[in-house]
Write a structure and sequence with these properties.
The structure holds 2 protein chains of 2 kinds. By secondary structure, chain A is of the alpha/beta class. Chain A has 8 helices and 10 strands. By secondary structure, chain B is an all-alpha fold. The longest helix of chain B is centred in the last third of the chain and has 39 residues. The chains are: A alpha/beta, B mainly alpha.
């Protein structure tokens, strides 16, 4: 086991938290015993169960898990997009009910407004908050530059690549000055090289702004490259399986992926993920077989 | 000059040349006796008739009257059509109850109901505008509903994440997202409306270009009749150009 790894594994039906992070009272984000069950025509499906963790101010935490483990459900619950769930989410001690101004969300899908230029997209949250036009455009230009898109202010999303559009979405969320940046696989649709370089950009921004960040991902490299802590989820129903502290030097960039320690962390997390991913594949196969028999 | 602008200008020149070639071909066919000149006048005769109908038939004033009727009908179609489309989007039960009926309205020959409108509004411009309005309403309602329904979930979630009020969500996310579809509806509505407006002018012998076409046809002035039809086409082109500019202004990325 590597130094820094808690190595804690949840027994079936139990959770690791609240040891997964700072004490809830000190944390910027405190998630306690959240759970969500979906009703479908085929019956009820528990997506996540009794999941608890915290994120401290300035920390970069990733949640990683196999496909179908309920990562996006966690994202939607914390972001306030899902109303009826079990448990409790608190931001800076305040219970979250619906969307919260302290939480900024970056979505997995392409989410820029196609009818707005880059700078108008980034200025969007400032516009709806009533900021004067000159002030909001100036502030938006600052964040456009921060994500490396200076010179593209007047371009429209249709004129940009996928990676550039995701940077616009990131800048737009940062412009709203969230205390917690919540990202759901924002680079999932990008190629590996672009993903690594955008990871560098995210790290730079996080270090500049001391931005507290919670990243949902299924990408091992991304999770280890970016995070101070990685929370590994089980397959459905999603629970915390292990918490891994990433003790790699800061400031980091994509070159960290070639270090031995990085490889060890990836291998260690993969051991846990492999078991869960296999369960997921078996589950999918049996569902397909059952559907075929009907 | 950019390559894109050059290509656009070339396309426009090609379009005009095509029209000239077609008119030339018709001229030749009529002169050769392949097409009966008592049914289709020579294109050169139609062109020659234009100064005459402008001077003698008050065509500019009639053109303006038809344009005004189309303008009023278009404004009503846009205002009521988009509002009703938004209402059907918001109220699911209403949508389930009415969508098929609105679809049926789009296919209905509204113009045949002109006696009913005559009874209600008399032989007046109001009757013509009312029929034009009803005829063009359905496509706008349906395309507004389609555009709003097709708004990507993630864009709505972005709005929610920034805590937009319902009116902000509608004006800043749903409406701009649906705008291309709404303009398709408006163009269709405009076509239906114009056809019906000129048709009713013709039928009730009241008002602008439709009445002129009726009168010229009654006099068997075929070049003049076709000349007046050219002015109807001009009205249509003017409205389409305005609609195109309006769309570009409202949604510059499209």
């Amino acid at each position: 086991m590597l130094p820094g790894s808690t190595g804690a594994i949840a027994p079936p039906g139990e959770t690791i938290a609240p040891s997964a992070g700072a004490s809830p009272a000190d944390a910027l984000l405190a998630v306690r015993d959240i759970g969500k069950t979906f009703q479908t025509p085929a019956g009820s499906t528990t997506a996540i169960e009794a999941m608890s963790f915290t994120v401290s101010a300035g920390e970069f935490v990733s949640i990683i898990g196999p496909s179908g483990c309920g990562k996006s459900t966690v994202f939607n619950i914390i972001g306030g997009l899902v109303a009826d769930y079990r448990g409790e989410v608190r931001v800076a001690g305040e219970k979250v009910s619906g969307t919260h101004p302290a939480i900024g969300m970056v979505f997995q899908e392409e989410s820029t407004f196609p009818w707005r230029s880059v700078v108008e997209n980034v200025a969007f949250p400032l516009e709806v908050s009533g900021m004067a036009k000159a002030a909001r455009l100036e502030r938006a230009a600052y964040f456009v530059e921060m994500v490396g898109l200076r010179g593209f202010e007047r371009h429209y999303p249709s004129q940009l690549s996928g990676g550039m559009r995701q940077r616009v979405a990131l800048a737009r969320t940062l412009a709203s000055s969230p205390r917690l940046l919540l990202m759901d696989e924002p680079f999932a649709a990008l190629d590996e090289q672009t993903r690594l370089l955008l990871g560098d950009k995210v790290l730079q921004i996080q270090q500049t702004l001391k931005q507290t960040t919670l990243l949902i991902t299924h990408n091992l490299t991304e999770a280890v490259q970016l995070s101070d802590r990685v929370l590994v989820m089980t397959y459905r129903p999603g629970r915390l399986k292990r918490v891994v502290d990433i003790d790699l030097p800061h400031p980091r960039d994509s070159e960290v992926v070639s270090s031995d320690a990085f490889g060890h962390y990836v291998a260690q997390i993969w051991q846990d993920l492999r078991e869960e991913a296999s369960r997921g594949i078996r589950d999918d196969e049996s569902r397909v077989l059952q559907a075929g028999r009907r | 000059m950019s390559a894109w602008r050059r290509s656009r200008n070339a396309a426009r020149v090609f379009g005009v040349l095509t029209l000239v070639v077609i008119l030339g071909a018709i001229e030749v066919l009529i002169r050769l006796g392949v097409v009966n000149r008592f049914i289709v006048p020579l294109p050169t005769q139609i062109i020659e008739s234009l100064p005459r109908i402008i001077a003698e038939e008050n065509v500019v004033q009639r053109f303006w009257q038809t344009t005004q009727e189309v303008l009023w009908a278009s404004l009503l179609i846009a205002l009521v059509g988009v509002s009703l489309g938004a209402l059907l989007y918001r109220v699911r039960t209403l949508r389930l109850a009415c969508e098929s009926w609105v679809g049926a309205l789009a296919a209905a020959p509204i113009v045949l109901a002109y006696p009913l409108f005559l009874v209600m509004f008399g032989r007046s411009a109001t009757t013509i505008v009312a029929i034009g309005f009803i005829a063009g309403l359905a496509p706008v309602i349906l395309k507004t509903l389609e555009g709003l329904t097709a708004t990507r979930r993630v864009l709505i979630d972005v709005g929610r994440s920034f805590r937009l009020s319902p009116s902000q969500q509608f004006l800043k996310v749903l409406l701009p997202s649906a705008l291309p579809s709404i303009f398709v509806g408006l163009r269709l509505g405009l076509i239906f409306s114009m056809i019906n407006i000129v048709g009713v002018e013709f039928l009730i012998n009241f008002g602008g270009l439709g009445q002129l076409i009726n009168e010229l046809a009654e006099r068997y002035d075929l070049p003049g009749t076709y000349g007046a039809i050219c002015f109807v086409i001009l009205t249509s082109i003017a409205f389409f150009v305005v609609a195109e500019h309006l769309e570009t202004w409202l949604s510059p990325a499209t």
